[in-house]
Amino acid sequence: MAPPRAPARPGVAGVAASEIPPSTPRAGTTPGVLVLVLALLLGIQPVTTDLYLPALPALTAGFGARIAHAQLTLTALLLAFGVSQLVLGPLSDRFGRRPVLLVGLSAYVLAAAGTALASSIEGLIALRALQGAAMGAAVMAARAIVRDLYQPAEGARVMSRALTGLGVIACLCAPVGSVVTDGLGWRFALAVPALFGVATLALVALRFRESLPRPDANALRPSAIVRTWGTVLRHPTFLTFSALTTAAYGLLFTFLASSSFVFLQVLGLSRTGYGLVMLWNSLAYIAGTFLCRYWLARHGVRGSVARG
């Protein structure tokens, strides 16, 4: 049974679901597989940002680098992650979610493998930036897929289930990173995301069917892009939610960039202990996704955000 679709998708395609030919590929992904795909696409973020954190002090010592330079491996990744979506979004509107995902995940795997082989901190920073840009394809596509297939209220519930999967992945990242770093070294901790990327790429290639009803031939026209950006930047809902998200993620990644040095070097915690600290943070995140799902049913999207 195909996942429920919005009866009409104004905007990019502007056609009703009933107008899409029966042979359309968007009908081929089952709800369970779709949630798994979404969870993996969203989960690529904590795999990329959290799993290597226990290895960060060892990585810094291995390159003989300063702490500030090591922290740039996270900063560069996040900057590339944010900027890349400004380009990848229109590309996915023009060519579809699936092609952008396949290319982006392939680039992610190559960049992740390259970080494990980097010979200098500068090379590592550059490869992490490429990894962040490729990660943008996964996260952007996950949200676009939900928008393609669901009305806002149902889409929020589907996204909540996918975010629960993300929370489970996030729970495992720091403990796995600690075990891998202790047992095999920091380079192997950098290589693990490549394996995750391969698994996600295989699932997308084999089981995910295109969700975009029809490509937008005008999506890459500069005038259309500028007009879309202008519309979005003037929308009060976008500005409000962007401010909330910026504040939340700013605090989160400030903590992540410094946490391993503080817990491991200043407080003298073991890598295993640090992994457990991060595990508790992730468990709190999972609890939040369940609470969000309950609130969505009772209060809707705006009411849930206000209470959060």
Features:
Growth Hormone, Chain: A, MFS_trans_sf, transmembrane helix, 10 helices, transmembrane transporter activity, mainly alpha, Bcr/CflA family drug resistance efflux transporter, 78% helix, 308 residues, two-stranded antiparallel sheet
Classify the beta-strand content into a percent band: under 5%
The total of helices stands at: 10
Bin the helical content: over 70%
Unreliable stretches covering 5 or more consecutive residues: 1-27
Number of strands: 2
What's the architecture in CATH terms?
Up-down Bundle
Shape: globular
Q: Given this structure, which CATH class is correct?
A: Mainly Alpha
CATH topology: Growth Hormone, Chain: A
Secondary-structure class: mainly alpha
CATH homologous superfamily identity: MFS general substrate transporter like domains
Order of helices and strands: EEHHHHHHHHHH
What's the arrangement of secondary structure elements?
Elements: E1 8-9, E2 15-16, H1 31-49, H2 56-63, H3 67-95, H4 97-117, H5 121-149, H6 152-184, H7 186-207, H8 222-233, H9 236-266, H10 271-307
Antiparallel strand pairs: 1-2
Helix pairs in contact: 1-5, 1-6, 1-7, 2-3, 3-4, 3-5, 3-9, 4-5, 4-7, 5-6, 6-7, 6-10
Describe the structure.
There is one protein chain. It is built from ten helices and two strands; from the N terminus they run ββαααααααααα. Helix 1 (31-49) packs antiparallel against helix 5 (121-149), helix 1 crosses helix 6 and helix 6 (152-184) packs antiparallel against helix 7. Strands 1-2 form a two-stranded antiparallel ribbon. The protein is mainly α and 308 residues long.
